[in-house]
Amino acid sequence: SETPATTAMQRQLVAAGVAVTGVAAALALRRLVVARRAAALLNKLQLKTPVPPDVEISQAVKLTPIKELFDRKFGLREGELFAHGTYKGKLSLSVYERLKHQPDGNYVVVCGINPTPLGEGKSTTTIGLSQALGAHLGQQVMTCIRQPSMGPTFGIKGGAAGGGYAQCAPMEEFNLHMTGDIHAITAANNLFAAAIDTRYLHEQTASTNFLWNKLCPADGSGRRTFELSMRPRLDKLGIFKAAPDDLTASEIERFVRLDIDPDSITWKRVTDTNDRYLRGVSVGTSPSEVNKKTGESLGRESGFAITVASEIMAVLALATDLSDLRARLGRMIACTSRAGEPLTADDFGITGALTVLMMDALMPTTMQTLEGTPALVHCGPFANIAHGNSSVVADRLALKLVGPQGYVLTEAGFGSDMGGEKFFNIKCLYSKLRPSCAVLVCTVRALKLHSNEAPPVVPGAALAAEYREERLGLVAKGAANMLAHIQNVRKHGVQVVVAINRFHTDTDAEVETVARVAREGGAFDAVAADHFAKGGAGAVELGRAVMAACAATSPREFRHIYDAKAQGVKDKIETIVREVYGGAGAKYSPAAEARIARYEADPALRSLPICMSKTQYSLSDDPKALGAPSGFTVTVKDAYVSAGAGFIVVSLGTISFIPGLPVKPAYYKIDVDLSSGSPRVVGLS
């Protein structure tokens, strides 16, 4: 029979969407109460002073199972999230198709000033802001960040999950293999490398007839067929015949012989490890890699790059869907023929295989912050050698999921002159998305360095007294660097909120100086944040400032700094130098002049955006030119096309494509603790 207690239970169950009566109601209510009590314990921070190591903080927080979190936040349907274990998964691109007619949310890019070698906590600030918006201000939010390379994780930099009480979690899974996207890129990149060298070997050692019979063998009835993967090369050659037997001898020769110039091969093998000894290697030195008729070795000099420097990483980050991914992979240029013709993945017939290897990697990885705000982790191109942003796919999905009143935080690598500029002029060009606001992360420490009057900041060494004591003069003088970055963002029509990532050595007067100078210099607002020590609670005022900036401006005010299609290659380069770096212009090496002349003559290449490769430590191409240098001329040493990614890389200096290890790498501290019963990772940062 019904009692007041069971009636009350029923009312609660009805409110929760459960229709039952009597004893069943009581049991269901009990399960509901238990579930709610358990949920109340999830994603709760237990703040400690001093702040414990990052990995200990991450392991102490009880996380929400990832499918439960995303289902609760966004009402996902069956089959839209594929769990990889308990706390990470893959988000299906079908979500975008379902929600594509829904208006986008507010699009916020987080970049920084020119950093010290220690970094200024941009990832930490991005995550702290997410926790503030979602866990403390009640906003729908998604954080889109890059997957870190394991090279720096075990090298000198450490991981990239954030820090302190503002982290993406579980940080061990975030910083290590995650869902295997980087491994997929490694496999695809190295398959292409093997295909290039193998094709060169076969063309040097086999007759045209032999190659033809292997590429298009006759079946039992004597009939030959083309593989679908061969069609792009045939189309490129102007051979539109459906049957192989209809080709003339000349057409067969052109089809089967790429005539690779071995000295032109730029495609490197990759590994996700900091290994300086792989910067230069000899390949094909085995006795089996020779021309048996002449005895000539078919080996060559080459080298490795770190996986995140592969063009496939940039392709993945800029693709909008699977069809676009396939097309971009097919356009990747690996070398030229002896006649100077660019040879692409399509020419090698490998595009389909590369696409198959990359299919699952196109889906962003779902994770969460310590305080339970959802995150999409996807791609990880470096900002000093590539465009330095997480994926277009992740941002597009996130903007639909949060809805028109929500917020998507996306991180651009290094400063507004690096990942920020490329976000505006490369990523937004291809995604057609418009940012609502930018967050510019700075620290008192970095501004003191940019005064040019403080000692260098050296990783592993104690900070000089200038960084540990109040020095208002240094802060005010070094703020010139911050002001230059504010103006960089404003030139793109985007409002700037300066986030002062506060360290325990910063004084109130120093922080107030930074905030005052930033506002006077054109920032919408400038706010100190203490998310490292306090989690989202320490970034609430920053969150409010970002919400106000988004409400006060329109994305329609956004503009590119140059017109990629209308301006020439040199014009675009020099526009970036003048408008973003504050320089006077550029001079070019003979090699750069020759390459750029070829690109200017090709309308398809001339219309590509520019991806500058330079130091992250200065607005100029000189890492020692701190502050806000002006009137300088940069030196363009080289240029090359990333045709799949869709930009021209312009090198302003010697940039290593595979880092080395320091004397004491981070791996000395990383281990597995077996003393507590279940294995526990220690030492990861």
- The proportion of strand residues reads 15-25%
The overall pLDDT, averaged over residues, is 93
Low-confidence stretches: none
Q: Which shape, going by the Cα principal axes?
A: globular
Q: Let me know the largest β-sheet.
A: 12 strands, mixed
Tally of DSSP helical segments: 26
Q: Radius of gyration from the CA trace?
A: 27 Å
What structural class do the secondary elements suggest? alpha/beta
| Annotation, overall tally of beta strands | 25
Helix content: 25-40%
In whole angstroms, how far apart are the ends? 59 Å
Describe the structure.
The chain has 685 residues and is of the alpha/beta class. Strands 1, 2, 3, 4, 5, 6, 13, 14, 15, 16, 17 and 18 form a 12-stranded mixed beta sheet that branches. Helix 6 (122-136) crosses helix 23, helix 9 (181-205) runs antiparallel to helix 15 and helix 14 crosses helix 15. The longest helix has 25 residues, at 181-205. The termini are far apart.
Brief descriptors of the model:
26 helices, 12-stranded mixed sheet, single chain
Topology:
Elements: H1 4-15, H2 22-40, H3 54-60, H4 66-74, E1 81-83, E2 89-91, H5 94-99, E3 106-112, H6 122-136, E4 141-145, H7 150-154, E5 162-163, E6 166-169, H8 171-175, H9 181-205, H10 208-215, H11 231-236, H12 249-256, E7 269-271, E8 281-283, E9 300-302, E10 304-306, H13 311-318, H14 322-331, E11 333-336, E12 342-344, H15 351-358, E13 365-369, E14 374-377, H16 392-402, E15 407-415, H17 416-431, E16 437-442, H18 444-449, H19 465-468, H20 472-490, E17 496-501, H21 508-520, E18 525-529, H22 531-534, H23 540-552, H24 569-581, E19 585-588, H25 590-601, H26 603-606, E20 610-613, E21 633-636, E22 638-642, E23 647-651, E24 671-673, E25 680-682
Parallel strand pairs: 3-15, 3-16, 4-14, 4-15, 7-10, 16-17, 17-18, 19-21, 20-23
Antiparallel strand pairs: 1-2, 2-13, 5-6, 6-13, 8-9, 11-12, 13-14, 22-23, 24-25
Helix pairs in contact: 1-2, 6-23, 9-15, 14-15, 17-20, 20-21
